[in-house]
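Q: Given only this backbone (247 positions), what sequence would you predict?
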Protein backbone atom coordinates (compact mmCIF):
# COMPACT_ATOMS: atom_id res chain seq x y z
CA UNK A 1 0.00 0.00 0.00
CA UNK A 2 1.11 3.52 -0.81
CA UNK A 3 2.36 5.12 2.47
CA UNK A 4 1.92 8.79 1.56
CA UNK A 5 -0.79 10.81 3.30
CA UNK A 6 -4.13 9.77 1.77
CA UNK A 7 -5.73 12.63 -0.17
CA UNK A 8 -9.27 11.33 -0.04
CA UNK A 9 -11.23 11.28 3.22
CA UNK A 10 -14.47 9.38 3.61
CA UNK A 11 -17.00 9.23 6.40
CA UNK A 12 -18.18 5.66 6.89
CA UNK A 13 -20.77 4.27 9.22
CA UNK A 14 -18.89 1.19 10.39
CA UNK A 15 -16.60 0.31 13.31
CA UNK A 16 -12.90 0.97 12.68
CA UNK A 17 -10.16 -1.24 14.01
CA UNK A 18 -7.08 -2.85 12.52
CA UNK A 19 -8.06 -5.22 9.73
CA UNK A 20 -11.74 -4.18 9.72
CA UNK A 21 -13.32 -4.66 6.30
CA UNK A 22 -15.62 -1.89 5.19
CA UNK A 23 -18.12 -2.49 2.42
CA UNK A 24 -18.81 0.80 0.65
CA UNK A 25 -22.19 1.81 -0.70
CA UNK A 26 -22.80 2.42 -4.36
CA UNK A 27 -22.19 6.17 -4.16
CA UNK A 28 -18.86 5.89 -2.35
CA UNK A 29 -17.72 3.01 -4.59
CA UNK A 30 -18.58 5.03 -7.68
CA UNK A 31 -16.72 8.04 -6.30
CA UNK A 32 -13.52 6.14 -5.51
CA UNK A 33 -13.37 3.81 -8.50
CA UNK A 34 -15.10 5.63 -11.35
CA UNK A 35 -14.65 9.30 -10.46
CA UNK A 36 -11.28 9.28 -8.69
CA UNK A 37 -10.08 6.22 -10.67
CA UNK A 38 -8.43 4.59 -7.66
CA UNK A 39 -7.14 1.07 -8.00
CA UNK A 40 -6.74 -1.71 -5.47
CA UNK A 41 -3.95 -0.79 -3.04
CA UNK A 42 -4.79 2.92 -2.94
CA UNK A 43 -4.81 4.59 0.48
CA UNK A 44 -7.86 6.45 1.76
CA UNK A 45 -8.47 8.15 5.11
CA UNK A 46 -11.69 7.13 6.84
CA UNK A 47 -13.52 8.24 10.01
CA UNK A 48 -16.81 7.30 11.61
CA UNK A 49 -17.19 9.90 14.37
CA UNK A 50 -16.20 7.40 17.09
CA UNK A 51 -12.83 5.77 16.35
CA UNK A 52 -10.69 8.66 15.09
CA UNK A 53 -9.17 8.70 11.62
CA UNK A 54 -7.77 5.59 9.98
CA UNK A 55 -5.64 4.84 6.98
CA UNK A 56 -7.52 2.31 4.91
CA UNK A 57 -6.58 0.41 1.78
CA UNK A 58 -8.85 -0.10 -1.18
CA UNK A 59 -8.82 -3.91 -1.21
CA UNK A 60 -11.55 -4.49 -3.77
CA UNK A 61 -11.97 -1.81 -6.43
CA UNK A 62 -15.45 -2.93 -7.47
CA UNK A 63 -17.29 -0.13 -9.29
CA UNK A 64 -20.53 -0.58 -7.38
CA UNK A 65 -19.51 -2.39 -4.20
CA UNK A 66 -15.90 -1.59 -3.32
CA UNK A 67 -14.24 -2.74 -0.11
CA UNK A 68 -11.73 -1.01 2.15
CA UNK A 69 -9.60 -2.57 4.85
CA UNK A 70 -8.62 -0.44 7.86
CA UNK A 71 -4.86 -0.58 8.38
CA UNK A 72 -3.70 1.90 11.04
CA UNK A 73 -5.10 4.70 13.14
CA UNK A 74 -3.66 8.06 12.10
CA UNK A 75 -5.48 10.24 14.68
CA UNK A 76 -7.50 9.56 17.79
CA UNK A 77 -11.07 10.70 18.22
CA UNK A 78 -11.36 14.38 19.14
CA UNK A 79 -14.44 15.91 20.76
CA UNK A 80 -16.36 18.60 18.91
CA UNK A 81 -16.60 21.98 20.68
CA UNK A 82 -19.59 22.03 23.05
CA UNK A 83 -21.39 24.55 20.89
CA UNK A 84 -24.82 24.10 19.29
CA UNK A 85 -26.35 26.03 16.44
CA UNK A 86 -30.09 26.66 16.52
CA UNK A 87 -31.44 28.30 13.39
CA UNK A 88 -34.78 28.89 11.73
CA UNK A 89 -34.72 27.14 8.34
CA UNK A 90 -34.63 29.50 5.37
CA UNK A 91 -34.51 28.83 1.62
CA UNK A 92 -33.04 25.49 0.62
CA UNK A 93 -29.68 26.63 -0.72
CA UNK A 94 -29.13 28.98 2.22
CA UNK A 95 -30.06 26.29 4.72
CA UNK A 96 -27.58 23.96 3.01
CA UNK A 97 -24.99 26.70 3.37
CA UNK A 98 -25.71 27.14 7.09
CA UNK A 99 -25.31 23.45 7.97
CA UNK A 100 -22.18 23.16 5.86
CA UNK A 101 -20.58 26.18 7.53
CA UNK A 102 -21.63 25.00 10.99
CA UNK A 103 -19.70 21.82 10.30
CA UNK A 104 -16.61 23.62 9.02
CA UNK A 105 -16.52 26.26 11.75
CA UNK A 106 -17.08 23.62 14.41
CA UNK A 107 -20.10 22.74 16.48
CA UNK A 108 -21.44 19.57 18.05
CA UNK A 109 -25.13 19.84 17.24
CA UNK A 110 -27.33 21.58 14.71
CA UNK A 111 -30.96 22.12 15.68
CA UNK A 112 -33.48 23.58 13.22
CA UNK A 113 -36.07 25.69 15.04
CA UNK A 114 -39.56 26.61 13.90
CA UNK A 115 -40.44 30.19 14.81
CA UNK A 116 -43.48 32.37 14.11
CA UNK A 117 -42.00 33.82 10.91
CA UNK A 118 -40.24 30.67 9.67
CA UNK A 119 -41.22 30.30 6.04
CA UNK A 120 -39.39 27.31 4.75
CA UNK A 121 -41.20 24.05 4.03
CA UNK A 122 -40.32 20.69 5.41
CA UNK A 123 -36.61 20.02 5.81
CA UNK A 124 -34.90 17.14 4.09
CA UNK A 125 -32.73 16.00 6.98
CA UNK A 126 -31.01 13.29 4.96
CA UNK A 127 -29.89 15.81 2.38
CA UNK A 128 -28.70 18.22 5.07
CA UNK A 129 -26.79 15.43 6.75
CA UNK A 130 -25.15 14.54 3.43
CA UNK A 131 -23.97 18.16 3.19
CA UNK A 132 -22.56 17.96 6.70
CA UNK A 133 -20.73 14.72 5.96
CA UNK A 134 -19.22 16.23 2.84
CA UNK A 135 -18.09 19.28 4.82
CA UNK A 136 -16.52 17.08 7.52
CA UNK A 137 -14.68 15.04 4.89
CA UNK A 138 -13.41 18.19 3.26
CA UNK A 139 -12.36 20.11 6.40
CA UNK A 140 -10.45 17.32 8.12
CA UNK A 141 -12.91 16.77 10.95
CA UNK A 142 -13.19 13.37 12.61
CA UNK A 143 -16.85 13.87 13.57
CA UNK A 144 -20.04 15.04 11.95
CA UNK A 145 -22.25 17.26 14.15
CA UNK A 146 -25.57 15.78 15.25
CA UNK A 147 -28.51 17.03 13.22
CA UNK A 148 -31.85 17.13 15.01
CA UNK A 149 -35.35 17.20 13.58
CA UNK A 150 -36.92 20.67 13.60
CA UNK A 151 -38.72 21.66 16.79
CA UNK A 152 -40.88 24.64 17.72
CA UNK A 153 -39.07 27.40 19.60
CA UNK A 154 -41.53 27.07 22.51
CA UNK A 155 -40.65 23.40 23.04
CA UNK A 156 -36.96 24.11 22.86
CA UNK A 157 -37.18 26.86 25.46
CA UNK A 158 -39.41 24.82 27.76
CA UNK A 159 -36.96 21.86 27.70
CA UNK A 160 -33.79 23.96 27.84
CA UNK A 161 -30.92 22.43 29.86
CA UNK A 162 -30.08 25.41 32.08
CA UNK A 163 -26.29 25.14 32.27
CA UNK A 164 -26.16 25.78 28.51
CA UNK A 165 -25.96 29.48 27.68
CA UNK A 166 -28.44 30.48 24.98
CA UNK A 167 -26.69 33.06 22.84
CA UNK A 168 -29.63 34.91 21.33
CA UNK A 169 -28.59 36.82 18.22
CA UNK A 170 -30.90 39.77 18.61
CA UNK A 171 -31.11 42.21 15.74
CA UNK A 172 -32.90 44.78 17.94
CA UNK A 173 -29.54 46.54 18.54
CA UNK A 174 -30.02 46.84 22.28
CA UNK A 175 -27.78 43.90 23.22
CA UNK A 176 -24.05 43.98 23.96
CA UNK A 177 -21.72 43.27 21.02
CA UNK A 178 -21.25 39.51 20.91
CA UNK A 179 -17.51 39.55 21.67
CA UNK A 180 -18.07 41.70 24.78
CA UNK A 181 -21.00 39.58 25.94
CA UNK A 182 -18.97 36.35 25.65
CA UNK A 183 -15.82 37.75 27.23
CA UNK A 184 -17.13 36.97 30.74
CA UNK A 185 -17.70 33.28 29.95
CA UNK A 186 -14.87 30.78 30.42
CA UNK A 187 -13.63 28.91 27.35
CA UNK A 188 -15.50 25.63 27.03
CA UNK A 189 -18.75 26.99 28.49
CA UNK A 190 -21.59 24.90 26.97
CA UNK A 191 -23.42 27.26 24.66
CA UNK A 192 -25.92 27.41 21.82
CA UNK A 193 -26.32 30.14 19.22
CA UNK A 194 -29.85 31.06 18.15
CA UNK A 195 -30.42 32.70 14.76
CA UNK A 196 -33.86 33.82 13.61
CA UNK A 197 -35.47 33.58 10.16
CA UNK A 198 -35.39 36.32 7.49
CA UNK A 199 -38.43 37.88 9.15
CA UNK A 200 -36.68 37.98 12.53
CA UNK A 201 -38.32 37.01 15.82
CA UNK A 202 -41.87 38.09 16.61
CA UNK A 203 -42.23 40.56 19.52
CA UNK A 204 -43.62 37.85 21.81
CA UNK A 205 -40.80 35.44 20.90
CA UNK A 206 -38.23 38.15 21.59
CA UNK A 207 -39.90 38.86 24.92
CA UNK A 208 -39.95 35.18 25.83
CA UNK A 209 -36.28 34.85 24.91
CA UNK A 210 -35.30 37.88 26.96
CA UNK A 211 -37.15 36.43 29.95
CA UNK A 212 -35.51 32.99 29.74
CA UNK A 213 -32.88 32.36 32.45
CA UNK A 214 -30.34 30.85 30.02
CA UNK A 215 -30.50 33.70 27.50
CA UNK A 216 -27.56 35.94 26.71
CA UNK A 217 -28.72 38.48 24.09
CA UNK A 218 -25.94 39.56 21.73
CA UNK A 219 -25.56 41.98 18.84
CA UNK A 220 -23.70 41.30 15.62
CA UNK A 221 -23.23 44.98 14.87
CA UNK A 222 -25.22 47.85 13.44
CA UNK A 223 -26.23 46.18 10.17
CA UNK A 224 -29.02 43.62 9.79
CA UNK A 225 -27.37 40.48 8.48
CA UNK A 226 -29.04 37.77 6.46
CA UNK A 227 -29.65 34.72 8.60
CA UNK A 228 -26.92 32.71 6.85
CA UNK A 229 -24.39 35.53 7.31
CA UNK A 230 -25.42 35.93 10.95
CA UNK A 231 -24.92 32.19 11.55
CA UNK A 232 -21.39 32.24 10.15
CA UNK A 233 -20.43 35.44 11.98
CA UNK A 234 -21.79 34.19 15.32
CA UNK A 235 -20.18 30.75 14.98
CA UNK A 236 -16.81 32.32 14.21
CA UNK A 237 -16.99 34.64 17.21
CA UNK A 238 -18.20 31.92 19.57
CA UNK A 239 -15.54 29.50 18.38
CA UNK A 240 -12.82 32.07 18.74
CA UNK A 241 -13.86 33.15 22.25
CA UNK A 242 -15.36 29.98 23.79
CA UNK A 243 -14.39 27.12 21.49
CA UNK A 244 -11.38 25.34 20.09
CA UNK A 245 -9.77 28.10 18.05
CA UNK A 246 -6.82 28.11 20.40
CA UNK A 247 -3.09 27.94 19.85
N1 LIG B 1 -36.16 40.85 9.39
C1 LIG B 1 -35.42 41.15 10.54
C2 LIG B 1 -33.98 40.66 10.37
C3 LIG B 1 -33.79 39.21 10.48
S1 LIG B 1 -32.17 38.79 10.13
C4 LIG B 1 -35.39 42.63 10.72
O1 LIG B 1 -35.47 43.32 9.73
O2 LIG B 1 -35.27 43.05 11.86
C5 LIG B 1 -32.17 37.09 10.57
C6 LIG B 1 -31.57 36.77 11.92
O3 LIG B 1 -30.17 37.03 11.89
C7 LIG B 1 -32.09 37.54 13.09
O4 LIG B 1 -33.28 37.02 13.63
C8 LIG B 1 -30.93 37.47 14.08
O5 LIG B 1 -30.96 36.25 14.81
C9 LIG B 1 -29.73 37.49 13.17
N2 LIG B 1 -29.19 38.83 13.00
C10 LIG B 1 -29.11 39.54 11.84
N3 LIG B 1 -28.49 40.71 12.04
C11 LIG B 1 -28.14 40.75 13.34
C12 LIG B 1 -27.45 41.71 14.15
N4 LIG B 1 -27.01 42.85 13.67
N5 LIG B 1 -27.27 41.40 15.46
C13 LIG B 1 -27.72 40.24 15.99
N6 LIG B 1 -28.38 39.30 15.27
C14 LIG B 1 -28.58 39.54 13.96
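A: Predicted residues:
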Amino acid sequence: MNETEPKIRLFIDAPLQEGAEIGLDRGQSNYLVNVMRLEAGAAIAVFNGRDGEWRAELTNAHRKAATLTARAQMRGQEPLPDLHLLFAPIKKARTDFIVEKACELGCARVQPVITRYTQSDRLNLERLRAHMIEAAEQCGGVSVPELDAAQPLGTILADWPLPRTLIFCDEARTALPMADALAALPRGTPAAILIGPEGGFSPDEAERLHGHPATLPVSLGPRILRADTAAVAALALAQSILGDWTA
